[in-house]
Amino acid sequence: MSFEDILNKIEQEAQRRQKAILQNARLEAEKILEKAKIEINQESERLIQQRTKESQLLVQRMLAEAKLKGRGIIGKIKSDAFQKVRSEVAAAFSEKISQSQKKWYTKIILNHSTSKDEVIFMAPDEANSLGENFIKQLNQENKTSFHYGGVTQEIESGLLLKKGGMVLNLSLNSLLEDAFRQNESQIAQMLFKGIEK
Q1: Nearest to 89 by CA among 196, 197, 184
Q2: pLDDT tens, 29-42?
Q3: pLDDT at 141
Q4: Where are the alpha helices (DSSP H) in the chain?
Q5: By three-state DSSP, how is residue 150 classified?
Q6: Degrees (nearest 5) of the Cα angle 77, 83, 88?
């Protein structure tokens, strides 16, 4: 058997094991994410930690096998594992938001608004489910002066706060990117603890 054939077999076996491990990780994550009940800011950290802890043993075993087969495979597995955590946390956020949409967006708006009188533009789904009535209710309950700006096509989900020439992107993608940027090294340490770079 040639060296190239050996490398191909190693890569195929690593890919097969990677798919099986990631499938098992997906099933475990679905069970865990159903139990999420705390506030969204705390929820993001808890979901990241819980998901990565459960994935850690599977990833380490897969990485140990892949380490014998080449550095290139390890890099791909690390990238895939990180993306898997990302996608599952994104799904958990979406699920959590859909369970208490008004409460979640109220908290996000109040936490990120500087003047409490910005114009709020909503992505199409949020405009359909929340709309102008949500802004009126928000203003009444919190003594604020927000204005409904209508539907925006600039984002897929979430809100935009605009005042003057300033725009604050409160889309789900933007909020998740911020959370992952802040926790990237912690996630990597938890996933790849004990594995050489």
Answers
A1: 184
A2: 555 445 444 455 56
A3: 93
A4: 3-33, 40-69, 71-99, 101-112, 124-129, 131-142, 172-191
A5: strand
A6: 125
Alpha carbons 178 and 109: distance in angstroms, whole number: 16
Q: Does the CA dihedral 189-42-81-158 come out positive or negative?
A: negative
User: In the β-sheet with 119-122, what is the strand arrangement from edge to edge?
Assistant: 147-151, 119-122, 158-163, 166-171
Residues 116, 145: contact at Cβ < 8 Å? yes
Residue 156 carries which DSSP code?
Answer: S
User: CA–CA separation, 129 vs 100, rounded Å?
Assistant: 12
pLDDT digits (tens, 9 = 90+) for 97-140: 778 889 988 998 998 888 888 999 999 999 999 999 999 999 99
The residue with tokens 């097969």 is 16
**3's tokens:** 């060296």
Sequence spans of domains, the chain:
3-99+176-191, 101-164
Q: What is the pTM of this model?
A: 0.56
Rounded-to-integer distance, Cα 44 and Cα 54, Å: 16
Encoded amino acid at 82, one letter? F
